Automatic annotation (TrEMBL), chain A:
<keyword id="KW-0472">Membrane</keyword>
<keyword id="KW-0874">Quinone</keyword>
<protein>
    <recommendedName>
        <fullName>NADH-quinone oxidoreductase subunit J</fullName>
        <ecNumber>7.1.1.-</ecNumber>
    </recommendedName>
</protein>
<keyword id="KW-0812">Transmembrane</keyword>
<keyword id="KW-0560">Oxidoreductase</keyword>
<comment type="subunit">
    <text>Composed of 13 different subunits. Subunits NuoA, H, J, K, L, M, N constitute the membrane sector of the complex.</text>
</comment>
<dbReference type="InterPro" id="IPR001457">
    <property type="entry name" value="NADH_UbQ/plastoQ_OxRdtase_su6"/>
</dbReference>
<feature type="transmembrane region" description="Helical">
    <location>
        <begin position="135"/>
        <end position="156"/>
    </location>
</feature>
<feature type="transmembrane region" description="Helical">
    <location>
        <begin position="56"/>
        <end position="76"/>
    </location>
</feature>
Automatic annotation (TrEMBL), chain B:
<dbReference type="GO" id="GO:0003954">
    <property type="term" value="F:NADH dehydrogenase activity"/>
</dbReference>
<comment type="similarity">
    <text>Belongs to the complex I subunit 1 family.</text>
</comment>
<keyword id="KW-0560">Oxidoreductase</keyword>
<feature type="transmembrane region" description="Helical">
    <location>
        <begin position="7"/>
        <end position="33"/>
    </location>
</feature>
<keyword id="KW-1133">Transmembrane helix</keyword>
<feature type="transmembrane region" description="Helical">
    <location>
        <begin position="269"/>
        <end position="290"/>
    </location>
</feature>
<dbReference type="GO" id="GO:0009060">
    <property type="term" value="P:aerobic respiration"/>
</dbReference>
<comment type="subunit">
    <text>NDH-1 is composed of 14 different subunits. Subunits NuoA, H, J, K, L, M, N constitute the membrane sector of the complex.</text>
</comment>
<feature type="transmembrane region" description="Helical">
    <location>
        <begin position="114"/>
        <end position="134"/>
    </location>
</feature>
């Protein structure tokens, strides 16, 4: 299980790095999907198959589809790839990278000496146990999240509201645009 | 545990062999279905269908295979090459991987996962990308429209596909497929979960893009949808993938609602195959009988009828289970 954890973690890091550096938006999203699946394997190796399955179903299978959907519709060509390349120059990323590297060094150092490392046993936590925890001690958080999502759903359906279905409106417009004498002409 | 003991090694070899047999059976039944479907459609629509090659057209599959292998494997110059090649592989592999969770007989089956059904949902979620990437990478307007329709349809139907099975999960108390089959020893779940069965059947047809939910590939309106630019074996993988999907959904319907291998007299494997082929026939008959509805009506049907139905079904199941427990 430990090998699986480290391999999946490596894949996740490399894939996420490619998400940032890739110039083609759709390919970058593909790497993001791979990264999410690698995180799912990480969850699995830590003994949480339920969380792993949800990670793939919800993030890789639903949310990322919407991302790809939108990027597909934008029809980004080679022009945007060029633009991306011109934005990603060392002058811009080198400063934040050095500072993040320092933070990473501190973190690794403290883990190394502080002994915060646990072992990966791969002990399995079943879906039922997750459920009893969610609807036991964490009930309030679940309910709050549900309310937040409901509010978002209502807002989205209000914004997307159409008094008249799109297709019927198009048809009505087409009928109005058509010359009035056309039908009789056809019959005669 | 001693890794190298002969018992463990034998168990590993037996497990791998079983997995390979199941894989080959799934792929071959998918391939044979391409011919069987055309013959059956011919029968039901009062015409012949392909009956020239071999006895009663039995060698038609070989002829088709030779033809599809020797076609030019053409990638359009304007296509996004990497995604174009990746898409059919996802289409084929994601559905094939789902056979992992199906318990065929008490002793046969690839993996006995705790998360069971959830694994199928995950693979069905990944399967959307095949259509999406195929349509995008083709850089063709018909392919793009097809991909849009397909992904919107699949997303909408996956929402209540998950919910339609939750009634079963509540009754069994487990996601594990073997537990679900064992829970049906007295009464098949098709009786107490009839609405769950109906909605899962509809969602299954929609997820495999079969008629009457074949909006994404409607020939008359958008040429052939997302795989219009594909040729040779890449198209073949999309094509066989669709039939593998039919076999998969039929096998899932069998295990989830018709009691899997349970049945009197005959051995378990025969019952499983009989029930699965019954659903495969149902898929083909549906295609022969029903016209294709309009796209927006398909979406409305999913969101405004099936989703509330599954929610009510889950609620009632929960109440009944709580009261009888």
């Amino acid at each position: 299980m430990e090998i699986a954890f480290y391999l999946a973690a490596l894949v996740a890091i490399v894939a996420t790095f490619r998400v940032i550096t890739h110039t083609n938006a759709v390919h970058a999203l593909l790497y993001l999907i791979i990264s999410l699946m690698a995180v799912a394997v990480v969850f699995y190796s830590l003994g949480a198959p339920f969380a792993a399955a949800l990670e793939v179903i919800v993030y890789a299978g639903a949310i990322m589809v919407l991302f790809v959907f939108v990027v597909m519709m934008l029809n980004l060509g080679s022009q945007t790839a060029h633009q991306e390349r011109s934005w990603l120059v060392p002058r811009i990323w080198i400063g934040p990278s050095i500072m993040a590297a320092i933070l990473l060094a501190v973190l690794v150092f403290s883990f190394w000496h502080g002994g915060g490392l646990g072992t990966i046993s791969g002990e399995e936590l079943s879906a039922k146990e997750v459920g009893t925890q969610m609807f036991g001690p964490y009930l309030l958080a679940v309910e709050l999240a549900a309310m937040l999502l409901l509010a978002a759903l209502i807002a989205a359906s209000h914004i997307g509201r159409n008094d008249e279905p799109q297709l019927e409106r198009d048809m009505n417009e087409a009928v109005q645009r058509a010359p009035a004498g056309n039908d009789e002409g056809g019959q005669a | 545990m001693n890794w190298m003991s002969t018992d463990v090694l034998l168990a590993i070899v037996a497990g791998v062999l079983k997995a390979i047999v199941i894989l080959l059976a799934a792929v071959l039944s998918g391939a044979f279905l391409t011919v069987i479907e055309r013959r059956l459609l011919g029968l039901w629509q009062d015409r012949y269908g392909p009956n020239r090659v071999g006895i009663f057209g039995s060698a038609q599959l070989i002829a088709d295979m030779i033809k599809i292998f020797f076609k030019e494997d053409w990638i359009p110059p304007f296509a996004d090459r990497k995604l174009f090649v990746l898409a059919p592989a996802i289409a084929f592999a994601s559905l094939l991987l789902s056979f992992l969770i199906i318990p065929i007989t008490p002793t046969w089956g690839v993996a006995d996962l705790n998360i069971g059904i959830l694994f199928f949902f995950a693979m069905a979620g990944i399967n959307v990308y095949a259509v999406l990437f195929g349509g995008y990478a083709s850089a063709n307007k018909y392919a793009l429209i097809g991909a849009m329709r397909a992904s919107a349809q699949t997303l909408s139907y996956e929402v209540f596909m998950g919910l339609s099975l939750m009634g079963i999960v509540v009754m069994t108390g487990s996601f594990n497929m073997r537990d679900i089959v064992n829970g049906q020893e007295g009464l098949w779940y098709i009786v107490p979960q009839f609405f769950g069965f109906l909605t899962f059947l509809i969602a299954g047809v929609a997820v495999t893009h079969r008629a009457p939910f074949d909006q994404p590939e409607a020939e008359q309106e958008i040429a052939d949808g997302y795989h219009v630019e594909y040729s040779s074996m890449k198209f073949g993988m999309f094509f066989i993938g669709e039939y593998v999907g039919i076999v998969l959904v039929s096998a899932l319907l069998t295990t989830l609602f018709l009691g899997g291998w349970h049945g009197p007299l005959l051995p378990p494997i025969v019952w499983f195959l009989l029930k699965t082929s019954f659903f495969v026939m149902l898929f083909i008959l549906t295609r022969a009988a029903l016209p294709r509805p309009r796209y927006d009506r398909v979406m409305q049907f999913g969101w405004k009828f099936c989703l509330p139905l599954t929610l009510i079904n889950l609620l009632v199941t929960g109440v009944v289970v709580l009261l009888t427990a």
